[in-house]
Specification:
Blueprint (H helix, E strand, L loop, with lengths): L1 H33 L4 H16 L3 H50 L2 H29 L11
């Protein structure tokens, strides 16, 4: 009876501890995904963290905040520039792929075009399923050796 009681108590403690860790990870990921700070807010946060860590004076904090603000704005500009470039490249590739498909369709018979269209739709559906599966795996908590008893 005593061994059973200790076993049950140990199991309950183990499950409680593992659940608490999963909740913490989930809260942290939700917090980082839902909160997008402005460059000013990021600069203030960074300057405050350095002030706490290094014991900066108010003047030093103000200077560091301005440096961080300049960096944040520069990075935002670069990110937007890269995003526009990527969209343009995507559209360019999409147009090239469409031209390629049109050339192939010009050679095929009507029946062959129908088969090819069905094949393309099937491939598109498979790719969508894989994408969903990959996204769901990214949001799961990582498996560790500690969880095994």
């Amino acid at each position: 009876m005593r061994k059973l009681l200790f076993t049950v108590a140990f199991a309950v403690l183990g499950f409680t501890a593992s659940y608490a860790q999963k909740v913490e990870r989930t809260e942290r990921t939700q917090r980082t995904e839902s909160v997008k700070l402005s460059p000013e807010e990021r600069a203030e946060k960074s300057a405050t963290a350095l002030q706490t860590k290094l014991g900066l004076t108010a003047d030093q904090k103000a200077k560091i905040k301005q440096i961080e603000l300049d960096r944040a704005k520069e990075y935002d500009g670069l990110r937007k520039k890269d995003e526009a470039t990527m969209k343009a490249k995507f559209e360019e590739r999409k147009a090239a792929m469409k031209a390629h498909q049109d050339k192939i369709d010009a050679v095929l018979t009507t029946e062959q075009k129908t088969k090819l269209a069905a094949s393309r739709e099937e491939a598109k559906a498979k790719m969508k399923d894989r994408s969903k599966d990959r996204k769901s795996r990214l949001h799961r908590a990582p498996k560790t050796e500690e969880g095994k008893i």
